[in-house]
Specification:
59 residues, mainly alpha, 66% helix, 2 helices, elongated
Amino acid sequence: MTYNFDPDRWYDNELAVLESAFKAGRLEESEYEERKDRLMDRYDEMMTRLDGTYRITEE
């Protein structure tokens, strides 16, 4: 099984959507900042889960 998920690209894409909504006036600045903080929290949690999930066992 190949695992091709790129968490940095995922974060960049999600952030771009938020920035687009903010620039278009669909989000107030406070809501934009709150969502951006939550996005970073999700990214950090994801990185913690992904870190070290693949290990080669020594026999």
